[in-house]
């Protein structure tokens, strides 16, 4: 039997297993009673207020909410970039709340992936070198198995033939696919995508979001998507709405009817009106 290109520490789900079934078994990240208070006295801001949230493994979860509602703060505390004032955060089985900076840096490097609006590719490096950069940063070369996984990812993302190009030789949609491949290269437990389609036209946005969703299903990858865009969020399995630092709604996309983007847009409008 030929060697699987997918590293074996995580099993590949069969397509028959729906994200919802996987979710029932596994939690990729958890916030328990998390509050974040910035400043003191009169200038104090309660950015997060007693959040309890499980991010289900192998699913695409969108975080939405009005401007200033706490979305970025929630992403930052989950990623260990900011510490909660109260409560606890875990990634997989690891409680990260009290980890020191070195341990958090290692955790981010090995267990988390990031995709940003601005792509953040290194302009002087080829596509392949950009995608394998996480291994370099971890002080090692990818193994043959890992390299095969990277090539499978590039192929799956439709950019396999572009591996020796530089970022400026790619379209925006292609650059974002490279950023997604880089985020997934080390098979992280969790990928954060922060407004990943903010710089893309609507066709490229649809393609990139469709790929992100398909990758969660095919490889049981967990992705958290932070976005203002109801169309982007409509690709998610589940949408969490934050308002004033609290979870205002927790919605399954299967329950959103025939026009999910419209339904999400209505929820956001209501939250903005009552803000
Ligand atoms: N470093 C900080 N110091 C003080 N207040 C902060 C800090 N970071 C965020 N805040 C405040 O916390 C609240 C939540 O901010 P956050 O950036 O998480 O919101 P957001 O939902 O991501 O907003 P946006 O959609 O506009 O990016 C806001 O009132 C913001 O002003």
Automatic annotation (TrEMBL):
InterPro entries: AAA+_ATPase, ABC_transporter-like_ATP-bd, ABC_transporter-like_CS, ABC_transpr_LolD-like, MacB-like_ATP-bd, P-loop_NTPase. This is ABC transport system ATP-binding protein. Keywords: ATP-binding, Nucleotide-binding, Transport. CDD domains: ABC_MJ0796_LolCDE_FtsE. Residues 29-269 form the ABC transporter domain. One of its GO terms (molecular function) is ATP binding.
């Amino acid at each position: 039997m030929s060697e699987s290109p997918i590293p074996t520490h995580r099993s590949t789900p069969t397509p028959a297993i729906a994200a919802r079934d996987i979710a029932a078994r596994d939690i990729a990240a958890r916030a328990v009673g998390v509050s974040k208070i910035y400043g003191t006295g009169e200038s104090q801001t309660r950015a997060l207020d007693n959040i309890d949230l499980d991010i289900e493994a192998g699913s695409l979860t969108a975080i939405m909410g009005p401007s200033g509602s706490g979305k970025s703060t929630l992403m930052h505390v989950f990623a260990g970039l900011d510490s909660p004032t109260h409560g606890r955060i875990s990634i997989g089985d690891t409680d990260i709340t009290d980890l020191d900076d070195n341990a958090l840096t290692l955790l981010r490097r090995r267990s988390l992936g990031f995709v940003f609006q601005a792509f953040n590719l290194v302009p002087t490096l080829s596509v392949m070198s950009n995608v394998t950069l996480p291994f370099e940063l971890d002080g090692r070369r990818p193994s043959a198995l890992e390299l095969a996984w990277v090539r499978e990812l590039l192929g799956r993302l439709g950019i396999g033939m572009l591996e020796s190009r530089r970022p400026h030789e790619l379209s925006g949609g292609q650059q974002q696919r490279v950023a997604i491949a880089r985020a997934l290269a080390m098979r992280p437990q969790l990928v954060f995508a922060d407004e990943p389609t903010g710089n893309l036209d609507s066709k490229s946005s649809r393609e990139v979001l469709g790929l992100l969703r398909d990758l969660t299903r095919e490889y049981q990858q967990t992705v958290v998507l932070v976005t203002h865009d109801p169309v982007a969020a409509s690709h998610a399995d589940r949408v969490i709405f934050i308002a004033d630092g609290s979870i205002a709604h927790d919605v399954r996309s299967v329950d959103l009817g025939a026009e999910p983007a419209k339904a999400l847009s209505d929820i956001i409008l209501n939250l903005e009106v009552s803000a």
